[in-house]
Design a protein that fits this description.
- The protein is of the alpha/beta class and 240 residues long.
- The protein is 33% helix and 22% strand.
- Strands 4-1-5-6-13-12-11-8-9 form a 9-stranded mixed β-sheet, with helices on both faces.
- Helix 3 links the parallel strand 5 and strand 6.
- The protein is globular.
- Helix 2 packs across helix 3 (83-98) and helix 3 packs across helix 4 (108-116).
- It contains 8 helices and 13 strands.
C-alpha cells in the first residue's frame, strides 16, 4: 500500500477555505505517496489520532509564523499569520517527532519544525540579518533555481541529493536562526542564511527553506531525490 502523507493546509482569510498547493500533492504522488490534506484541529486527542494514522508528515509552505511562539514581539515587517495553523502544526510536529515518523518541511514548514524543537527564527531577514543578502524573494519562475547553497557532507540532505552544492529557488523573508540539538544545519547560502536543517536522532526529519516541490515539476534531480527519499522513509514506517 502507498504510504499516507499528511499535508498541512493554509487557511484563506475571509473565505473560510483550506487550501494546498498542487505542486505539493503532485510531488508526493509522483514519489509514490498518498497525500491527505489536514484541517486545523485543536483537540489533543484528534492530533494524536492523526499522528498515529499517517506514515509521514509534509509541513507545507505558507504565511508567516506568530513570533510570540518563540517569545518575541511582532516585527513591523511581519506578514499574515494564521494562529490556528501555527498551533495545529506545532502540536502535530511534536507528536510525529516523538513517534519518530518521517517529516519533511518546506519554507514555513522548515521553520515550524525548528520551533517545535525549541529553535527560533528571523521574522524578517532583510532588516534583522547584518549581511549583504542574496535575493531571497526571486523574480524568476517558481521552478527556477535562483541561488546556490552549500550542503554538509554526509548529511541526510547530501545523501538524498548526491551533491555538495546545489541551486535552489527562493520565496521567503523569514528564516531559521538558532537551531537546537538534536537538529543541525545541513545547508547554507553564501550570505549565511540557513537553508536546511535535519535531525541527528531521527531517520528522516528534514526542513528546507526553498520549495523543492516546484523544482520537482521541472524534473530537477536533487528535488526529486528529496521527495523520493521522504516517501521511501514513509513506506518503511508503514511497513513496520
Amino acid at each position: 500500500m502507498k504510504p499516507i502523507i499528511g499535508v498541512t493546509a493554509s487557511l484563506e482569510l475571509g473565505r473560510d477555505e483550506y487550501g494546498i498547493e498542487l505542486a505539493d500533492t503532485e510531488a508526493i504522488v509522483a514519489a509514490g505517496g498518498l497525500p491527505v490534506m489536514l484541517p486545523h484541529l485543536m483537540e489533543e486527542a484528534d492530533i494524536d489520532e492523526i499522528a498515529e494514522h499517517i506514515d509521514g508528515l509534509f509541513l507545507a509552505g505558507g504565511y508567516d509564523i506568530d513570533p510570540t511562539l518563540f517569545d518575541e514581539e511582532p516585527h513591523p515587517n511581519l506578514g499574515v499569520i494564521i494562529p490556528s495553523r501555527d498551533a495545529f502544526e506545532l502540536a502535530l510536529a511534536k507528536k510525529v517527532l516523538a513517534l519518530k515518523k518521517p517529516i519533511l518541511g518546506v519554507c514555513r514548514g522548515a521553520q515550524i519544525l525548528n520551533i517545535a524543537v525549541g529553535g527560533d527564527m528571523y521574522q524578517d531577514i532583510t532588516t534583522q540579518v547584518k549581511a549583504d543578502l542574496l535575493q531571497h524573494q526571486q523574480k524568476a519562475p517558481r521552478f527556477h533555481g535562483s541561488h546556490f547553497i552549500d550542503v554538509t557532507e554526509g548529511s541526510l540532505l547530501h545523501r538524498l541529493t548526491g551533491v555538495r552544492r546545489m541551486k535552489v529557488n527562493s520565496r521567503h523573508h523569514q528564516a531559521n536562526r538558532q537551531v537546537p540539538e538534536p537538529f543541525i544545519v545541513s545547508g547554507v547560502s553564501s550570505d549565511g542564511i540557513i537553508e536546511a536543517i535535519e535531525s541527528t536522532q531521527h531517520h528522516f526529519a528534514l526542513g528546507v527553506q526553498w520549495h523543492p516541490e516546484n523544482m520537482a515539476r521541472a524534473k530537477d534531480s536533487a528535488s526529486l531525490g528529496i521527495f523520493t527519499g521522504f516517501i521511501e522513509a514513509c513506506r518503511e514506517e508503514g511497513d513496520e
